[in-house]
């Protein structure tokens, strides 16, 4: 692409209208005639290798300060934001050619985006989905490494979606993606805020900074849908100036009240600006009633009618690893859930407790190289509703698993809830299954959709809890 077409008059340069072969912010991908964008990160500043990039054949470098590199440096005020503009231009602005729905918050993003995609697909739309578990282009599954992909990869994915015929993109928008401006100039027709609870403080440091990151999404949307049952959702609803709707258990534009929650689904009444609807859906859990309400409101904001939304909403089976029942064929149940924050583990256990006949047993751990302060909080949250706890590993990464467990156990010092510590997660699952009694429900928390564990030096091993439960059941047999 010619340089001037790529710049779109957003920056001045004395370089002629040369042909550009590539754009990158990764110094490992510098190539002849590329543009290298110098981005300052937490651990590495691209400006430190700007001169080297030119020596390696880059046509130009984008910088935030004058490095004395002459005409081949392009000076901008914000190189991260400018890189987003370059990536969008490189793919001829696919973000302008489709509708976008963004969902942000600590919990619920994956379920809400999945339900929205299901509803839209059943109404004839071809939908792209971007999220934690995987990316999807219609029915095609695309692997993902990040909830919100890096800037170039995201625009490349948009382009693939548009070229394949997608007319709507539904995406989880992470706090990392927003702060690092990965979404470029994407503008959202609708944006949902689910909640905000402690997570990622190793990166954001404070809850206010975490909130500010999430809030950025609502500066680039037409219609906001906010969970006003959540204190941060109330705050957001009061602060934003775009068109907005609230959802929650009461005093909301879209409100809901549960009639029955069982292992086989949930029945509830939803009251909307158009009237009330009685809904019985396949997904279970009180939190999924809230998620379904958010999805309904988002689809209405896109112009779908209540009639178009209700049937697919009620028939949606939900998401792998989100309150997923693993068949046992026994007189006890096993549920797999991604809950990995204090709020999420409390929510899943509170909901499952409603229909547990015997003991509620929770097996969980905490990830290594992540926020240590939430570890005892996870334990306290689990102890509120569980009758027994099994504390084990999650993704220990470069930390010693027993040291992580010791941090977790600090939160159980005064709980009075019986617990066992079993470091090896496979062994812990076998132990839970072996000791289960009639009517018990075992909740395996933390892994959810993940089919791996991560150990030191980023060593990843296959670990699918569905397979392990089946092995444990076979051993029992």
Summarize this, please?
It contains 16 helices and 23 strands. The chain is an alpha/beta fold and 477 residues long.
Commentary on this structure:
- The protein is an alpha/beta fold and 477 residues long.
- 33% of the residues lie in helices and 23% in strands.
- The chain has 16 helices and 23 strands.
- The chain has helices spanning 3-7, 50-55, 79-90, 109-122, 151-163, 175-179, 201-204, 207-215, 231-239, 286-301, 306-315, 342-353, 374-383, 401-409, 425-435, 465-476, and strands at 22-24, 34-37, 60-63, 73-75, 99-104, 127-130, 135-137, 140-142, 168-172, 188-193, 221-227, 243-248, 254-262, 265-272, 275-281, 324-326, 333-337, 360-364, 388-391, 419-421, 441-445, 452-454, 460-462.
- Strands 8-7-6-9-5-10-11-12-13-14-15 form an eleven-stranded mixed β-sheet, sandwiched between helices. Strands 16-17-21-18-19-20 form a six-stranded mixed β-sheet, sandwiched between helices. Strands 1-2-3-4 form a four-stranded parallel β-sheet.
- Helix 4 (109-122) packs across helix 10 (286-301).
- The longest helix has 16 residues, at 286-301.
- 47% of the residues are buried.
- The model has no long low-confidence stretch (mean pLDDT 94).
Mean pLDDT: 94
The tally of helices reads: 16
How is the biggest beta sheet arranged? 11 strands, mixed
Shape: globular
Q: How big is the Rg? A: 24 Å
Uncertain runs are none
Protein structure class: alpha/beta
Share of residues in strands: 15-25%
Number of strands: 23
First-residue to last-residue Cα separation:
64 Å
Proportion of helical residues: 25-40%
| Cross-sheet strand order for the largest sheet | 8-7-6-9-5-10-11-12-13-14-15
């Amino acid at each position: 692409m010619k340089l001037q077409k790529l710049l779109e008059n957003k920056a001045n340069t004395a370089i002629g209208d040369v042909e550009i072969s590539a754009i990158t912010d990764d110094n490992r991908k510098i190539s002849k005639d590329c543009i290298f964008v110098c981005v300052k990160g937490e651990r590495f500043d691209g400006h430190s290798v700007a001169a080297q990039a030119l020596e390696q054949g880059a046509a130009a470098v984008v910088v935030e300060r004058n490095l004395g590199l002459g005409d081949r440096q392009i000076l901008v005020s914000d190189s991260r934001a400018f890189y987003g503009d370059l990536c969008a231009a490189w793919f001829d602005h696919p973000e302008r050619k489709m509708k976008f729905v963004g969902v942000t918050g600590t919990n619920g993003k994956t379920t809400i985006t999945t339900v929205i995609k299901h509803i839209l697909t059943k109404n004839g739309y071809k939908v792209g989905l971007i999220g934690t578990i995987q990316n999807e282009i219609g029915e095609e599954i695309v692997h993902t490494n990040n909830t919100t992909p890096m800037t170039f990869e995201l625009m490349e994915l948009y382009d693939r979606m548009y070229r394949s015929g997608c007319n709507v993109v539904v995406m989880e928008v992470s706090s990392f993606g927003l702060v690092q401006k990965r979404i470029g100039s994407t503008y959202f027709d609708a944006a949902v805020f689910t909640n905000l609870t402690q997570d990622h403080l190793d990166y954001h440091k404070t809850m206010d900074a975490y909130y500010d990151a999430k809030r950025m999404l609502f500066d680039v949307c037409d219609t906001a849908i906010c969970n006003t049952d959540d204190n941060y959702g109330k705050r957001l609803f009061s602060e934003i100036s775009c068109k907005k709707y609230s959802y929650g258990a009461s005093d909301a534009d879209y409100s809901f009240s549960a009639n029955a929650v069982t292992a086989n689904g949930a029945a509830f009444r939803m009251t909307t600006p158009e009237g009330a609807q009685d809904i019985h859906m396949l997904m279970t859990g009180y939190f999924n009633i809230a998620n379904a309400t958010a999805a309904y409101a988002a689809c209405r904001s896109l112009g779908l009618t209540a009639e178009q939304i209700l049937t697919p909403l009620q028939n949606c089976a939900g998401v792998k690893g989100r309150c997923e029942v693993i068949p046992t064929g026994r007189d006890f149940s096993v549920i797999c859930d991604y809950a990995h924050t204090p709020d999420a583990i409390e929510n899943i256990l509170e909901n499952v407790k409603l229909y547990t006949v015997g003991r509620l047993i929770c097996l969980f751990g905490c990830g290594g190289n992540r926020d240590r302060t939430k570890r005892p909080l996870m334990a306290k949250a689990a102890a509120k509703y569980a009758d027994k706890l099994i504390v084990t590993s999650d993704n220990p990464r470069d930390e010693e698993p027993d040291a992580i467990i010791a941090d977790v156990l600090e939160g159980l010092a005064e709980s009075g809830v019986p617990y066992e510590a079993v470091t090896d997660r496979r062994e812990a699952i076998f132990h839970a299954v072996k000791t289960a009694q009639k009517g018990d429900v075992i909740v395996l928390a933390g892994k959810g959709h993940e089919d791996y564990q991560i150990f030191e030096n980023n060593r990843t091993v296959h670990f699918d809890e569905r397979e392990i439960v089946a092995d444990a059941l076979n051993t029992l047999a």
